[in-house]
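Quick look at the format.
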Amino acid sequence: MKIKEIKNGSIYFNVKKNRPERVISNNFSKSRVVTEYHNKNQTAVPARHLRLADDIEVENYLDKKGSSFIASFFRKLTGRK
């Protein structure tokens, strides 16, 4: 994935770590972005290790966050319970 395509706050799948992560800064460098995994492990990740997370991966990420505002907003937005 190209760094220009990556959006802050979006959830991407880290293919190297085999888990969804949220991008918190795509201005780190020309080839890396900063991600976090459920508000911990803020690390720089090469953009080539990320791909856009699919619906199931996003839902799994939000479920692990518990009943946070983002999870409840996403559920309301998609009509899921």
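Next, a different chain entirely:
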Amino acid sequence: MIESIYNEYYAAGLRVVSLGMEWGPYNCIAWGESFNLTYPILDDTDNLLYNKLTYNYVPHNLIIDHNTVSYTHLR
């Protein structure tokens, strides 16, 4: 879902960035490759951003504009 939003609105200026960490068999690179993701996935192994932006449920998707969080989705 996020990949399709990213692809559809990239030319209009939307940027998508995900947070990741080592989880089971995955790390950020393997996660992106396994699911054919083309947007950046930041390695947040220290949970510095994860603890501030999520509800401890993965994946948790946020869209943040220049004012605030405009979309949050648990899935």
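The chain has a mean pLDDT of 78.

See the schema section for token definitions.
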